[in-house]
Amino acid sequence: MFKKINLILNSHKKKNLLILMLFWLFLYFLETIGIGSVPIIVSSLLGNQDFFNIDFLKIINNYLPIFNDTKNQVLHISILIISFFAIKTIFFILLTIFEAKVFKDLNVFIRDQAFKAKIKQPYLEYTNSSTSQIVKIISQDATLASSYIISFVTIISQLFLFLFIVILLSIADFKVTFFVIPMFVLIYLVFYLITNKKLFTLGKERQIINGKMLKQINNTFENLKKVIIYNKFNYLINHFKNTVADSQKKVAFISILKKIPKAIYEFLGIIFIFFIIFFGYKNSYTYENTLILLSLVTVAIIRILPSINLITQNISNIKSSEYSFNLILDLIKYNQKEKNLPNNLGNPISFEKEISFKNVSFEYPNSKNKLTNVNFSINKNSILGIYGPSGSGKSTLVNLICGLLKPDEGEIVADRT
Fold first, then answer.
1. Which tens digit of pLDDT belongs to each residue from 305-346?
2. Of 8 and 281, which is predicted with more confidence?
3. Closest-CA residue to 414 (of 364, 350, 370)
4. What 8-state DSSP symbol labels residue 390?
5. Are 320 and 313 spatial neighbours (Cβ–Cβ below 8 Å)?
6. In the 8-state DSSP scheme, what is residue 387?
7. Cα(264)–Cα(183) distance, rounded to whole angstroms?
8. For residue 180, which of 270, 314, 281, 90 has the smallest C-alpha distance?
9. Most distant pair of Cα atoms in the chain: their distance
């Protein structure tokens, strides 16, 4: 996955995404400190001074002796925590603005690369694609490819938060953390193994159906006169309705698979909280110590559950958009190799007397019709017509003259050179 993303992005986009992840790393470190402040204020309210014997808090107290003044301890701690969260909030707002810009530039870059690849592809490849397919690739597949990369960045950043909170809980009570975290990981792995291949298949099927839907729309309105004359309204409406229904079935199934883990993790979080109460009771924890630990764990769960859910949803999104991402990756690889490919129109030619076809043969891939051993000359400033039944090769002949297509055999020369 990382190797593919590295291929699809230029150095500037990689740099911006790396900076973004580092900023998120710092923000989640601050957020973990914020979570750790909860038991401090609870301890202060309960008048329990044992919690303030932690080495980290002793260092703070050396510079800000707020824990010694028990009379105003709650006020001092509250002011410190509020100030801390104010700074964190400002940093979060600035980071959100920067993230929006990075993701906006990423979307523009991916779509630009897809458009560039399709517009510069050899004309013969264009003739094998419908307009609806090209529209789908540039609009839908490019968007999903961007979503694939954004999901990857989101997963990395959320894993940092998850790791920080796990470390915080381990410091507070290693036994409790050792029991709970493996349970969350195990349930996730089971769900991932069950849904992994299914999500990729659903994502691929959804994009294929969406391509058919765009093709139906284009064909319908490009041939609207025939639709009216032959009164095909009901047929086309029903056909389109069935295609949309098939697409939405895939979307609904993907949405269900993304949302189910959220309910499971919330249920596990409730179980975890009651486990803390039972664990404190069985291990003869004091009422104050149990309440302090419970406050920390509850706030940590409230924050870590959305993080776990985001990780699960974005992994599901990666699997469902992988087909589109690979499609765009192939186009960007084409752009990177473009300088080694011949120009579609070739070099400018000098045409002063005549253009001559000499034993020219051409055949489209998977086509029964072909031009064979065509020989003729066209004098400059002459007027001529090309006639023949549909599919006989009139447009192909014009495309060969213009240089849009290259002959399979023979040569096309100007002024006998």
1. 788 778 888 888 888 888 888 888 888 887 767 654 445 445
2. 8
3. 350
4. T
5. no
6. -
7. 12
8. 270
9. 105
